[in-house]
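Not sure how to ask, but would you mind making up any protein sequence you like and the tokens describing how it folds?
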Amino acid sequence: MKDIYLISDTHFGHWFAVWFWKRPFKDIKDMNNTLIANWNSRIKEEDVVIILGDFFAGNRLFLKYLLSNLNGEKILIKGNHDFKFRYKKLLKERGISIYNKMEFFLNEHRFLLTHKPIKRVPEKTINIHGHHHRKLIPSKYEQNKYFNVAVDHNNYKPVALEEIVENKLGEKDLNHNHIIVQIKYSRLNRKYAIAFA
């Protein structure tokens, strides 16, 4: 069975990531290696991983290395550091789909996947996001409507969708296939797509 994981703000190869956010690594190489090991400790090759922005910096050789060493089928939701020249490299390498945002439904609840948290979350909607490294979410936002998957808040590891759903809705059982079909094939998400793998 395919599992679904979410992660954000890995910043692979971003030279400033260690010192600027005070990450607990001795240097950028240590950060990259630890994030790859943590990723693969949870995600199997057949799983789906949704990266909620700010994935990497570097040349195509480094990108090839990342894509070949990170398990799972990868989907990227564009972040503020995923500039056009970076995601053009991703498109040339193939193997990763890119979106502006995504959404899916679980019973009567809507899950909205974005890089930055949206300001006003409608009723029965949960916004899964990243972007905020130091705070989970600014205090002006309704805390119970958000879940931050930035690595800085999750022991530098991906988060299983089950954990988010249990945290927000108290539910444990998920129909993974139903959610994967919505994520990958719904007309709405296709409208948000920049490119398909």
Summary: The chain has a mean pLDDT of 89.
